[in-house]
Amino acid sequence: MAKVADGIRYAERVVAGEIVAGEFVRLACQRFLDDLKYGEKRGIYFSEPRAQHILNFYKFVPHVKGALAGQPIELMDWHVFILINIFGFVIPLVNEETGEVVMRSDGSGRPVMVRRFRTAYNEVARKNAKSTLSSGIGLYMTGADSEGGAEVYSAATTRDQARIVFEDAKNMVRKARSTLGRLFDFNKLAIYQEQSASKFEPLSSDANNLDGLNIHCAIIDELHAHKTRDVWDVLETATGARLQSLLFGITTAGFNKEGICYEQRDYAIKVLRGYNSDVEGAVKDDSYFAIIYTLDEGDDPFDETVWQKANPGLGICKRWDDLRRLAKKAKEQVSARVNFFTKKVTSRRNNSATCPDFFSNQMKEKDFFLVRRFCFFWKVLAVFIICVLHCVLQKRVINHMALNKLSDKKLRSLLGRRSERQETIADGNGLSVRVSKYGCVSFVFFYRLAGRETAPIWLTLGKYPDLSLKSAREMRDQCRTWLAEGRDPRIQIKIEREATLQPVTVREALEYWLDNYAMDKRRGAEHIRQCFGKHIYPVIGHVPLSDCSISMWIKCFDKIKKVAPVQAGALLRISKQALKFCRVRKYAISHEIDDLEVCDVGKKSARRSRVLTDDEIRDLWRSINTDYDNHELSYENRIILRFLVVFGCRLSEVLLSSWVEWDFDKKLWRVPADHSKNGREIIRPIPDGMFNWLVTLKKITGNKENVIGFDMRQCTASVTIGKTWKRMKHSEKWTAHDMRRVFATKLSDHGFEHNVVEQLLGHTLGGVAGVYNRSQYMDRKKEAMNWWYDYLNKQISGDSNDSNSYA
């Protein structure tokens, strides 16, 4: 894992000359070291915890491309250096009205600290993991910077360019479901965090549509491609309401000396050269971070020894052999030099360096005359060809433009755009797109069946981009063909869709869901199959799904409701999920029960609050410890209940447990992830007093893999244990799951910490703590388990006073 010390060591090695670096990188490193040493004199402080916080965040960020896709990113030293600069340096917050430092409200007497750098300029050659760095910063600023309602944007000249950083960030969340997936949700248009009302979106360079933003972080990718400073200015002014916003510009080199990139580069150089000197034209700006990886003036771009100046990731994320191949090509092909100089070694050389040799001063006058004649001939020929094509194809081009007015670029710009009213835009020949107020784009076909005397019909063909523009036009042409034949397109489309579906029964549809989804992804899939076989299949299982009306479904559920109202509601929810799965897979279609709710056919299970009294615990524990079968508890129930009472575990964890999960050397029970409800391993210490009983049980069970020594289905065990309260003559019903409530309540009442109790129960911690906190609290869990086991034994020994405190 990356450490702050890695970034500091990188700066020291650059300044010492141990790492090949250009002038501007050396200046950035020297500026960092000087600020680290003398910054406090100017009110600049370095917060190592803040710097380490973002480095810790990156260990949950995975690679999204190439052979390492899915594996955690290992930050390079130059990445670490940039991150600890931007996020490590802080300054006291000053009240602009009074000029006084704002103090924290916790009474500590310390000032409120905010980030020093508000703007960052980073120039580096291609394929040095720029987008990876930017995407991670975007995610961090969205959900891990403790900023409420954070607005983070990835901006570029085109929406496709802006989506590069955004899509990388979205794929990072997709590939890290267990970590980043708990912090963020995403859709096609945004990454968002509901808890803090924050979002991360891509933005195109239409500066007129960027007003009204309240930006916490803006990442401007490929800044050299921006021809004007409009986007930069709009984004920069939109950060004023935030206390520690960040405008992060990242780019390769370019030639445009009139654009915002050249202005920012020139300003960055002035800041780097003037941070500790009074050179003419130098600028002192403590809020501006700059680092420029480029060749120095006079460096030979074809000299391998200087390539690392522009490529800090060379040899790690960028291959030497690839750069050598491109250098060789640039040497031989003059036209390839532009790309090599600007994108591979970030050398801002004059364009004349790439011109053909015959334009050099040494070119002979005769050769120049021949070249001019040759170029003139090709110009005349090109004009002639264009005129011929224009005359021949003019009518076809005009007709095509009249019919096909829309483009994919136009449709992409409409996606997600909010407006006050619905809008319809025509493409031609009856095809249009309907844009909702919330930016949902749908293709519709407008037609009449019998001329203008009949009412117009709007037929929805599908949503964009699920249905492409090309496919929508093909469907339009097919609809026009049907109209010419006197057939209704609406009916024909329905016939075609139904013809592609298999005529399946209710039973076949539910079994399809069970076999293709539930068996792999639903706990208790076999129990669901048994419930279907008992309650649904005998009534409507043989009925074709397309013929099964809502009244038939209600009649079936009403029959279940009479004996098991809660189960009726549960079966409705499962049936709706199963039929939706069949619709999505195009296996069978039915919408009959979509509008039914649980209250229509049954009732929801009530949330239980039953906690056994001390007398009931005493009776139960005494029966569990009886060495012979009695009328209250059978041998099997005594074994299962001992696990439930002592460990507070789930019934399924006991029934599925095998001896390989039990570590007798370390006295631990390790419940594997595939046996736990939340998909994570649960580690529970074995109480000292129960250890010998477990060793004896293992000898009794012999070679059987199952811990309890016998096979019992969960539904059977739940029913038999659920009747124990009657046999023990307790006043109120309790279930196997209520043992977990007793376990948690008693430990919490005795003073054991919330995190300790939750881990013993096998619950996951919520919020950011659940992502970063990986402690097992093993000592405290062992104390809790020993106290609980002693407490149970004291109940039947008659000594209920707790003289030995574990809290």
From TrEMBL:
Keywords of this entry: DNA integration, DNA recombination, DNA-binding
Residue runs in coiled coils: none
Segments forming domain Tyr recombinase: 607-786
Domain of life: Bacteria
Biological processes per GO annotation: DNA integration; DNA recombination
Short name of any one Pfam family annotated for the protein: Phage_integrase
InterPro entries found in the cross-reference section: DNA_brk_join_enz (IPR011010), Integrase-like_cat_sf (IPR013762), Integrase_catalytic (IPR002104), Integrase_DNA-bd_sf (IPR038488), Integrase_DNA_bind_dom (IPR025166), Integrase_recombinase_N (IPR010998), P-loop_NTPase (IPR027417), Phage_Integrase (IPR050808)
Record-linked SUPFAM superfamilies: DNA breaking-rejoining enzymes
MF terms in GO: DNA binding; endonuclease activity
Assigned protein family: Belongs to the 'phage' integrase family.
Protein name: Prophage terminase, large subunit
Species: Escherichia coli O44:H18 (strain 042 / EAEC)
